[in-house]
Amino acid sequence: MQGKRPIMLYNTLKREKEEFIPIRAGEVGLYTCGPTVYNYAHIGNLRTYIFEDVLRRVLEYNGLHVKHVMNVTDVGHLTSDADEGADKMEKSAKKEGKDVWTIAKHYTEAFFNDCARLNIQSPGVTCKATDHIPEQIKLVQDLEKKGYTYRTSDGIYFDSTKFERYNELGRLDPKGLSAGIRVEMGEKKSPTDFALWKFSPKDEQRQMEWDSPWGKGFPGWHIECSAMSMKYLGNHFDIHTGGIDHIPVHHTNEIAQSEAATGEKFANFWLHGNFLVVENDKMSKSSGEFLTLERVISKGFEPLDYRYFCLTTHYRKNLNFSWENLNAAKEALQKLREEILEIKKSDYKGTKSTETYDEEFLDKINDDLNTPLALAVLYKLLKDKDVGAKEKYAAIIDYDRIFGLKLAEVKEAKVPEEVVKLAEEREIARKKSDWKKADELRAKIAAHGFNVQDTENGYRIDPKPE
Ligand code: AMP
Ligand code: ZN
After folding, report:
1. Which of 120, 171, 189, 279 reaches 20 to 30 Å from 310, CA-CA?
2. Is residue 282 within 8 Å of 252, Cβ to Cβ?
3. Which of 267, 269, 259, 270 has its CA nearest to residue 232?
4. Residue 47 Cβ < 6 Å to ligand 1
5. Residue 114: nearest ligand to its CA?
């Protein structure tokens, strides 16, 4: 890394890029809204975690020490973000005929397994909502003491009209809201009021419920992130992140209840990742139609192909998913690996250092995490015949601290004769449309540790990812 350069980040709070200056020199408190573990994460969700991983890597690349906290939502997230409908966790448990704790454990493990495969670094602190019920109750009590709450027949609510800056982050259109566009009002006094504590329904036995000063029930979704972020990072911390869908409700509510309770500013920076879309539709978990990482792998891709695919678009832009686009990313990554192998083996001596590239690289990543342009710097360096192989290799491996593509682990893959023979047999079976045999042969190839992939120019054999 070269000399210091400002880190510019787009702060949703201000709707502009601002220089990031940590509250405590050299340290960053970063809170990331984690998964709701009632189902597998889809690759849209995973795009957001890849963006957050890049953010953390950029901060670390700049020599900052990051304390990264991520929650796991295992209670309280209702089917509508705005306090309506069933608890997603309880609903999923019923559907799968399992107890809700088993559901939470299963999908939490699956989520962290996906993250590991995508080379997303583990947060320093991972915290479950159900392990922090007393902290959430305490926060609601603080709000109650300060007069921000009221009671309805189904819970304790936050009175958003009492918090003047309520609309600062979301910049919602108050006319639209008062016309009741967003939510059913129920007994709420104002459409933007939200539940802090919900009572257990009288006609239904919940699996997850706790005693509280107001009656048996469970915390609202928003309160968990306020309680846990402040517990681990303090009342006032540096950066809070999530997907853009969190801006108008979840994050708006987090700010209101946290700042109302403490009287302090909550997070300085709010960063939001844009959506992964399929034919202009947001990929969504609740619609039931979504792609998991497992499915992507079953189609012959490696998790890192998907990571590369995400890096090619800036995190604040929509990313359009298609198998063709993903395949293009796979091929680009494969080619990059081949070129890196060449450089690694070469003893070509150059006349030029990588300094100008290093500076440009840092400029790009520090300009609101511009990974597509940072990748372009890497490709420009690759092509530069004046730079020696050793220096080139070292710079690329250094840049990979941001990309996280495991470029230092690229190895020459010797494909055994037997695997080539099986692939040839499979090609013949495919030409005869004998799909059953082709699939059997694919499984045999996989048992040897290789993936066979059909491309426009015939098949390709890759080592299976570890
Ligand atoms: P959830 O598990 O539903 O709470 O969502 C986990 C994260 O994924 C949140 O930060 C969401 O904002 C984000 N997210 C949801 N849908 C998408 C999508 N289609 N593309 C990118 N991020 C998404
Ligand atoms: Zn959250």
Report:
1. 171
2. no
3. 267
4. yes
5. 1
pLDDT in tens, 133-190: 999 999 999 999 999 999 999 999 999 999 999 989 999 876 655 544 455 688 999 9
pLDDT at position 332 over 80: yes
Atom of ligand 1 minimally distant from the CA of 45: 8
- CATH code for 8-273? 3.40.50.620
- pTM score, two decimals? 0.88
pLDDT of 178 = 53
Q: Are 54 and 315 spatial neighbours (Cβ–Cβ below 8 Å)?
A: yes
Superfamily of domain 281-409, CATH level 4: Isoleucyl-tRNA Synthetase; Domain 1 (1.10.730.10)
Atom of ligand 1 nearest to the CA of 243: 12
Percent of all residues in the chain with a pLDDT value above 90, rounded to a whole number? 76
150, HSE (Cβ side, Cα atoms, 13 Å): 11
* H helix or E strand, kind and range, residue 196: strand 194-199
Report whether 220 contacts 210 (CB < 8 A). no
pLDDT > 60? residue 95: yes
Q: What is the DSSP letter of 34?
A: -
Out of 31, 42, 45, 239, give the residue to mutate to test ligand 1, the one with the largest number of ligand atoms within 8 Å of its CB. 45
Lowest mean pLDDT among 73-82, 250-259, 305-314, 432-441: 73-82
What pLDDT does 2 receive?
Answer: 43
Provide the residue ranges of all domains of the chain, joining segments of one domain with +. 8-273, 281-409, 417-463
CA distance 234 to 300: 44
- Ligand 1 center to residue 240 CA distance, Å? 15
Ligand 2 center to residue 37 CA distance, Å? 13
What is the distance between the alpha carbons of residues 137 and 148, in angstroms, rounded to a whole number?
14
Distance CA 59, CA 216 (A): 43
Measured from the CB, is residue 303 less than 6 Å from ligand 1? no
